[in-house]
């Protein structure tokens, strides 16, 4: 069985066509604000049976997404399991702010479809849509990076400090427009799924920075290493036998790579796993790992090779993108234009530098002081937005995720679903969204904690929960439902004495860990903590350095309650969100049980209250098209 590992490929965006066609045409544009882009809105809505008077929604009415009945039943069942057990507590959904300066740079308008790409700093320069203006003295595009530049490295299979310059150093397989939710070819210029075979064509003229041509073998090596390292394509290519990967991921000729699938898979889901891959697998650096993994005779042998691969740091990469690595020190990484890249002619500036900016605050100041020329995504509160120069434009990009509380299911007290539900009843999600949004209209409270996104476009009620919303709890979207919370805690054996909830002489404590550099998340967590404290739960925010939180506490499950995005960002299709919750390395960090007990919504989907959500996720990946 494949390891539950969430890589870029696991959190990649869903494509076009049937499931999301209507969203691209109607749902995404329905929230357009006067300043361009989307805007979160809070409008009262009528509630039904399981809801409550505090539920609100969006002002827009979206056209329903086309979805077959088999898929919809599975989606609704997974939503119901999530709503009834709360393995995570979704708090808000977000639109990402993206920034481009216009004084020395020609960029598309903020409401242009060209901005709605995965991501602007990746793609606009490649297509000649982010260029230096005529007569500009600024010949270097300046961006930001989180990790210390000299400590950064560019081995995608080593999760530590895989830094932002990867965006220009390596090419993605395909492009993806977040607004239209359509793919277009790039390094993989064309593809065709014919039965159980996916053929991919490598773009002509692609060249590594050492001058060697990019071939189908390089694409094959990238896919193989991702699969061997636990990437989710493995479950479709070689679900039961890692030794079969070598025979099922092959190069037919210099420019044609093929995947032979072992099981049926929805094409949109398959492409979504391929699209965001960067071509990193340069033969001289990674070829030996591919050979050793292909030839390994046991899982133990593969594990040993993977240990070497994931421990390898590559500080000076041979890239495949339009810029090549020059140098890095404590404050910046410098890359220069690679003239042999097919898109080099579209780029009229010779260098990009990435400055070390490890917090939101430092990035705000860099934009305000015109030190940087833009940001792919960055949360900037309204008081800081007002300080931006007139030359900085703000665009809003749909993300299909947002901040949530993740529970360590092996830690008391949140191992008890009654405690998780009580917390949900206490926390006023509208207040969390408002405070973390800080006047930017980029956050909206989740109405139904189900793991479903598209709150902005009305698709949660309009499509995914159509006909069954009265079966779902809101847990109080805009108000603390203290009586319901108290009843659940009393059922779980807690009593309130002297204004504090406790059991066996010990107070009920809820420490919430998170990354200190994510200022909007910090504000949201502080709001939730205040509400819990007021109710009588001893809650506290425990904000850690970004690298310490993500690299140590989070991945080692060293938390009771943690901050994390509650969905698989940039994906519109529910499959990816439920896979993230129930079948990924992240769900392993939360110790989510493989089986949960929850009431049945659709008896044609399951016939008992004990359910393995991962099996429903697997069925959804191959549901009827």
From TrEMBL:
Pfam families in alphabetical order: SBP_bac_5
Family classification: Belongs to the bacterial solute-binding protein 5 family.
Name recorded for this polypeptide: ABC transporter substrate-binding protein
Keywords (A to Z) from UniProt: Signal, Transport
Span of domain Solute-binding protein family: 187-584
Organism listed in the record: Halogeometricum luteum
